[in-house]
Design goal:
Strand content: 15-25%
Radius of gyration: 13 Å
Oligomer: single chain
CATH topology: Rossmann fold
Distance between the termini: 8 Å
CATH superfamily: Response regulator
Shape: globular
CATH architecture: 3-Layer(aba) Sandwich
CATH class: Alpha Beta
Number of strands: 5
Number of domains: 1
Order of helices and strands: EHEHEHEEH
Largest sheet: 5 strands, parallel
């Protein structure tokens, strides 16, 4: 089994684009439409990396980020925030911030490069 990435994104078009890019490279992909679903999936099958949108309904990506960094099952998983929010870096504590932030819209090469920096190639 290859490396697994969990995409937590409420916008279907963005989620499908990320999934397509990652699967083309050989990564296994799990999807969640909101923070609660994302946390449940991460606990069920611990992914190697999480791509997390910040602006979602119900539970915000920021709150989910905090939950994942505190939860024993998910605390060590690299989290890359993918957002259209230009001030995203200001939302996090310097010591417990995301492993990386990618601004929307993004290039496939940028997304893949940041992922590889954290977890390497898919197989």
């Amino acid at each position: 089994m290859g490396k697994t990435i969990l995409i937590v994104e409420d916008e279907e078009a963005v989620r499908e684009l990320e999934k397509f890019i990652l699967e083309q490279q050989g990564y296994d992909v799990m999807e969640a439409r909101d923070g609660l679903e994302g946390l449940a999936k991460a606990e069920f099958r611990k992914p190697d990396l999480i791509l997390l949108d910040l602006m979602m309904p119900d539970v915000s990506g920021g709150r989910m980020f905090d939950e994942m960094k505190r939860h024993p099952t998910t605390t060590g998983i690299p989290i890359i925030v993918v957002t259209g929010k230009p001030d995203a870096h200001e939302m996090f504590d310097d010591e417990i911030g995301p492993d990386n932030v990618i601004m929307k819209p993004f290039e496939a090469d940028t997304l893949l490069g940041r992922i590889r920096d954290h977890i390497g190639e898919p197989a």
